[in-house]
Design brief:
With 321 residues, the chain is mainly beta. It contains 2 helices and 23 strands. It has helices at 270-278, 298-304, and strands at 4-7, 16-23, 29-38, 41-47, 58-63, 72-77, 89-95, 98-105, 109-115, 124-129, 143-151, 154-163, 166-173, 182-188, 197-204, 208-215, 222-230, 233-240, 247-254, 260-264, 282-284, 289-295, 310-316. The strands form 6 sheets. A 4-stranded antiparallel β-sheet has the order 1-2-3-4, with no helix packed on it. A 4-stranded antiparallel β-sheet has the order 5-6-7-8, with no helix packed on it. Strands 9-10-11-12 form a 4-stranded antiparallel β-sheet, with no helix packed on it. It is globular. It starts with a strand and ends in a 5-residue tail after the last strand.
Length: 321
């Protein structure tokens, strides 16, 4: 749900809508597409070539990682091996009518996020990399948290931190309002000693990556994970995969020693719930519309022959005022 959004990637001043489309075959192809919006309809202007389809392990982020006026696509794969190939992290720029590679790293990323670690409005790439080749990969192997900067000569590793367990998902945000991003993760281990752990990390120029919060069994599989703003404060939204009480909202607070604590928020705050729901949608500044993904009706699924079938719904901003 987080691999989609609006951004101007070609410098023409018009937002493109970037999204993944899942194709119902085996193995599933994930097609990265760019589209223009015309009267609330998508006009597809580019579809990823075969080399950007990995059968289910690939996702992408959009942000400015090299300091030029346009946003870049950061495509990363969590697959360890597909047909004996390893897939790494790639940074792509839109030039003319095609994407060109700005930088690439052969290290497969289990999860990734874009973070501004120095407040210069140019984002670095944080990702969880599985450092070893495992014949029987379980997905819970140890990882290395890495912070990389995109340079004209490729990726430059700035900081890294070894973890004895896996990182399932990752996102970022400025949790304390100082203009510098923290990043937060969902973590687990094979033996169950770390299960549904939520952790927060900060990046210090001298100390590198430092964990400032960790609490075990805080969640049972994350479906959606994001920092959002509401009433002048920053909150964490966690949408669980479990059916009971799927939404949890926490307010991160920084302690005097620099660590954090998460305060659960009551779910009957209507403004907080409103802002949380808005953060799950893509928003277009150009058309003033939100975009929501919803499940198709039974008839639509029967007509398309796809199960499950999803569709994008365009909602005018004024409908939420």
């Amino acid at each position: 749900m987080d691999s989609w959004g609006f951004s101007d990637v070609n410098g023409d001043g018009i937002e493109e809508f970037i999204f993944h489309e899942y194709i119902e075959d085996f193995p599933r192809d994930i097609l990265l597409k760019l589209a223009h919006v015309r009267a609330e309809e998508l006009e597809i202007v580019w579809t990823a070539p075969r080399e950007l389809r990995t059968g289910g392990g690939e996702r992408f982020l959009v942000g400015n990682v090299d300091g030029d006026p346009e946003s870049e696509l950061v495509v990363f794969s969590g697959r360890r091996m597909i047909r004996a190939r390893l897939f790494g992290t790639r940074v792509l720029n839109w030039r003319g009518d095609e994407l060109t590679t700005v930088g690439t790293d052969q290290l497969p990323a289990k999860a990734a996020a874009l973070v501004d670690i120095d407040g210069d409005d140019v984002q670095e790439i944080a990702f969880a990399m599985v450092p070893e080749y495992f014949t029987n990969w379980e997905g819970t192997e140890p990882v290395v948290l890495m912070i990389c900067r995109v340079t004209p000569n490729g990726f430059e590793t700035l900081y890294q931190l070894e973890l004895p367990h896996a990182v399932e998902s990752m996102n970022s945000g400025d949790l304390n309002g100082d203009g510098i991003d923290e990043f937060f993760t969902e973590e687990l281990s094979y033996g169950g000693s770390v299960e549904g752990q939520i952790a927060i990390y900060e990046v210090d120029a001298e100390r590198g990556i430092r964990r400032v919060f960790a609490q075990n069994r805080l969640v049972n599989r994350v479906r959606f994970f994001r920092a959002f703003q509401s009433q002048g404060s920053t909150y964490l939204l966690i949408v669980r995969a479990s059916s009971g009480l799927p939404i949890a909202i926490y307010k991160p607070s920084q302690l005097p020693n620099g660590n954090y604590e998460l305060e659960p928020q009551l779910s009957h705050n209507p403004q907080l719930l409103h802002d949380a729901v808005m953060s799950t949608m893509a928003y277009s500044q150009d058309t003033k519309h939100y975009v929501q993904r919803v499940r198709c009706s039974a008839k639509e699924e029967a007509d398309t022959g796809l199960y499950p079938c999803n569709k994008l719904v365009w909602i005018p901003e004024e409908n939420f005022q």
